Amino acid sequence: MKRLFLATTALVAFAAGAQAADLAVPRSPIASAVVMPAFSWTGFYVGVHAGFGFGRSTGFGPGPFPANTSGPLIGGQVGFNYQINQIVLGAEADLAFAAISGRDDVTLPGFAAHYRTHMLGSVRARAGVAVDRALLYVTGGLGIQGGSFATNPGPGPERYSRLGWTVGAGVEYAITPNWTAKLEYSYYNFGTHTLGPLYVGTVQSHVHTVKVGLNYLFSTGSSAVVARY
C-alpha cells in the first residue's frame, strides 16, 4: 500500500512539472486561415476587338440629306491599368477598320448622298471598380474618324479625317491571370466637318459602337499566399 501511494505521488508530481514547463515556453501562433490574394489588374495590356457600329450622318449643302449608318468594325487596342485597392485607373488607345455606311436617296429624286466611316480610333482614360476578376469601368476621351462623303451623280468620294470626343462604359473579366475578355459600349461625336474641294457644304455625324474584345495583360501575377494569424 505504501509503495502504491509513493508511485501515485511521483506520477502526479511529474505531470505537474511537465505542465509548468509548457507554460514557460511560448507557443508558436497557428495560422487561422490561408487567404489567396485577389486578382491584380495592374499592368500593360494589348488586345483585339470586333463589333458593330451604327449612327446618323447629315450633309448640308443645297439642303439637309440625313442618313442612318451601320456596319461592322475590327481592330486592336493597347493600354495600362493601375489598381489601388478596388479602384482601377488607366489609359487606352485603340484603332479599328470600319465599314459603317449609309445613304440618303429620298430627299431629292434621282440624287443620293453616301456616307461612310472607314476608320474609328480613340485615346481615352479609364476608371473602374474591381470585384476580384471582374472590372466595371467608364471611359472617355478623344475620338478619331476617317470618313468619306459622295453623291450620285457626283465627282466621286471625298475622304477626310477629323477629331471629336467619345464616352462609354464596359465590363471586363479575367479568364486567366493574363487573359481578359471585355464587352464595351461607346458613343462618338465628331461635330461638323466642312467639305472641300470636291463638294461644297458640311457633314455632321455621330456613331454608337458595341464591341467585344480580348486582352493579354503583361503582369507578374498575384503575390505570394498570405497567412493570417
Structure overview:
- With 229 residues, this protein is mostly beta strands.
- It folds into 2 domains: 26 residues; 178 residues, Porin, CATH 2.40.160.20.
- 10% of the residues lie in helices and 66% in strands.
- The strands form 2 sheets. The protein has an 8-stranded antiparallel beta barrel with strand order 2-3-4-5-6-7-8-9. Strands 1-10 form a two-stranded antiparallel sheet.
- Strand 5 and strand 6 form a beta hairpin.
- The longest helix has 23 residues.
- The two termini are 51 Å apart.
- The N terminus and C terminus are likely disordered.
Task: Describe this protein with a few key phrases.
about 230 residues, mainly beta, Porin, eight-stranded antiparallel barrel, two-stranded antiparallel ribbon, about 10% helix, about 65% strand, disordered N terminus
Distance between the termini: 51 Å
Number of domains: 2
The helix fraction, in percent, is 10-25%
Structural class of the helices, strands and pairings? mainly beta
Oligomer: single chain
Unreliable segments (pLDDT under 50, ≥5 consecutive)?
1-25, 30-36, 223-229
- Give the second-level CATH assignment, the architecture of the largest domain: Beta Barrel
**Strand order of the main beta sheet, please?**
2-3-4-5-6-7-8-9
The average pLDDT is 85
The radius of gyration computed from the alpha-carbon positions, rounded to a whole number of angstroms, is 33 Å
* Biggest sheet architecture: 8 strands, antiparallel, barrel
Overall geometry comes to: elongated
* CATH fold label of the largest domain: Porin
Q: In percent terms, what proportion of residues is strand?
A: over 45%
**CATH class division of the largest domain:** Mainly Beta
H/E series: HEEEEEEEEEE
If helices are DSSP runs of H or I spanning 4 or more residues, what is the number of helices? 1
Number of distinct beta strands: 10
